[in-house]
Amino acid sequence: MAYQIDFDDNPDKKEIDSRIEKMKDIFNNQKIMNAEDYVKEITGASDIIAGVKNLVLIISLIIIVMISVLMERSFISKEKSEIALMKAIGFRNSSIYAHHTARFFIVGIVAFVIAGLLCKPFTKLIVDPIFAMMGAVAGISYEIRPIDIFVVYPLVILSATLAGTFLTSLCTKSIKASDTSNIE
Questions:
Q1: Which of 80, 114, 123, 142 is the most buried (most CB within 10 A)?
Q2: pLDDT tens-digit profile of 23-51?
Q3: How far apart are the C-alpha atoms of 120 and 122, rounded to whole Å?
Q4: What is the 3 state secondary structure string of the chain?
């Protein structure tokens, strides 16, 4: 199907592109490409995988917001007397909103740190056997994009969580200081 040329001097992307252009002239063939372009042409799956990745992100965000809203509603109903007591001793609504949102922020940061530490080992543990069934028994080298994995996606997920939590915490506005009579 194709010939593969491995460079042993570890050239950068710019150098590889210039070498590809030289080979196109030398061999008089315009179908010389790097590994990424070759896989795109042969499988046609990279665009589909990118679309699936975005779809999974959107579905995950919807699920995360729903869970955050349900958890916050549960906390509010369980802590109604405590919220009323906070209002009775002078806490403003904004500080109660901040308190409820900060809980989710702290848990989110801790979760992202733990997920970041376990990312590499669990990827190898879970995904390598799948590729081994397809013939890649020596393992796969993964392209980890740290900006996406450790900055962009966590910020998007944390923002969605905090937005859902904050908007739900606005329900505490209906709790009045006189609701402290239910304290047991």
A1: 80
A2: 888 888 888 887 777 777 777 777 788 88
A3: 6
A4: CCCCCCCCCCCCHHHHHHHHHHHHHHHCCCCCCCHHHHHHHHHCCHHHHHHHHHHHHHHHHHHHHHHHHHHHHHHHHHCHHHHHHHHHCCCCHHHHHHHHHHHHHHHHHHHHHHHHHHHHHHHHHHHHHHHHHCCCCCCCCCCCCHHHHHHHHHHHHHHHHHHHHHHHHHHHHHCCHHHHHHCC
Domains in the chain: boundaries: 1-43, 45-182
Q: Which residue has the tokens 């009775």?
A: 88
Q: Which of 118, 25, 108 is nearest to 71 (CA)?
A: 108
pLDDT higher than 70, residue 181: no
Give the CA dihedral 39, 42, 44, 47, nearest 10 degrees: 20
Q: pLDDT by residue (tens digit) across 84-130? A: 888 889 899 999 999 999 999 999 999 999 998 998 888 888 888 88
* pTM exceeds cut of 0.90: no
Which residues have a Cβ under 8 Å from the Cβ of 81 and sit 6 or more positions away? 179, 180, 182, 183, 184
